[in-house]
């Protein structure tokens, strides 16, 4: 299959497309704080062409995200279309080895989980930051603790619906993401691991990052991965499996449960040197870094009928010009900021994580 492997200025390959289908969200996590204003969202044809062109440039992994991607009315059709294209041998989309989705799990009903599986989704990651209902409510920004508890149970049920639909955690088809904020949900680490362990789900602890401007991030809020591992070693036998090139997670094998715990250490151990991810927002802006101040508007190349060649050249030129390494320089950048601790940049719910 003819595709050109694209590299940026630091010889980093373009491998992963993180495509946000919707910036809005039905949760309001305290570390993310979605803005929920309305945007002109791209249509199916435009999403499809972005995926096609990215695959022509070497992308082999697609992550569908948001905001909350399960709120998107275009999701099922998009997945179905990609599934069909993946079956065509000469189609660059067949280059996709992995199609995954990140969700808060609230809309992961039995029907939805079955549809996602049927439509060719390979993997799901569910975000879950606490098992205690009050802490969960706090993390998702739900003031009413009774509603928060109901939402927690719906998410936990959603995880089981996904497993029953065929997203087998033992085969890496279902994972959990947990953001740990110091003194807010750090007492949930063991409970989260126990919950995941019972179902052989890999749980990935993400260091709280300074994305967006509304979460009031402070360095002192970060609960470092190293500390999580130190804590877990008191109770579990962990073997370091390291971080694979181009991946974000450092994996640890828990021999007492035949499953993995992972850490994503963007703050304490940045992985910019092999960052292979392009983000495209639901309104058609390309971001080559989670911490870019501005995206590049692809809409002029997305008006119908789309000229694939021109769109491809645009994305190629964006990637080739890429120099990003924000996490490697984070504290130098922040030191220069005298007025506030946080660099101005778009929110996580807009960028898609
Ligand atoms: N709404 C979906 C969800 O929560 O899974 C998908 C979008 S969300 C922006 C993608 C991932 O980003 C989630 O796993 C979430 O926990 C993570 N995230 C959001 N804000 C973050 C922050 N400030 N630091 C670290 N991770 C964050
Ligand atoms: Fe919504 Fe995901 Fe952000 Fe939470 S992390 S507010 S679920 S987009
Ligand atoms: Fe990639 Fe930017 Fe994160 Fe570095 S800071 S790993 S370049 S997204």
Report on this structure:
It contains ten helices and twelve strands. It has 353 residues and is of the alpha/beta class. The chain has a single domain (16-348), classed as TIM Barrel (Alpha-Beta Barrel). A twelve-stranded mixed beta sheet has the order 7-8-9-6-5-4-3-2-1-10-11-12, covered by helices on one side. Strand 8 and strand 9 (259-264) form a beta hairpin. Helix 1 crosses helix 8 (308-320), helix 3 (110-118) runs parallel beside helix 5 and helix 4 packs across helix 5. It is globular, with a radius of gyration of 20 Å. The two termini are 30 Å apart. It comes from Prochlorococcus marinus XMU1424. InterPro entries: Aldolase_TIM, MoaA-like, MoaA_NifB_PqqE_Fe-S-bd_CS, MoaA_twitch, MoCo_biosynth_MoaA/MoaC, rSAM, rSAM_sf.
CATH architecture: Alpha-Beta Barrel
Overall spatial form: globular
Distance between the termini: 30 Å
* Class by SSE composition: alpha/beta
Task: Write down the overall mean pLDDT.
Answer: 94
Q: Numbering strands along the chain, what is their spatial order in the largest sheet?
A: 7-8-9-6-5-4-3-2-1-10-11-12
What proportion of the residues is helical, as a percent range?
25-40%
Q: Would you tell me which CATH topology applies?
A: TIM Barrel
Rg result: 20 Å
The unreliable regions are none
Tally of structural domains:
1
Largest sheet: 12 strands, mixed
Strand segment count: 12
- Tally of individual helices: 10
Approximate strand percentage? 15-25%
Name of the top-level CATH class: Alpha Beta
What order do the helices and strands follow? EHEHEHEHHEHEHEEEEEEHHH
Q: Could you give me the name of the CATH homologous superfamily?
A: Aldolase class I
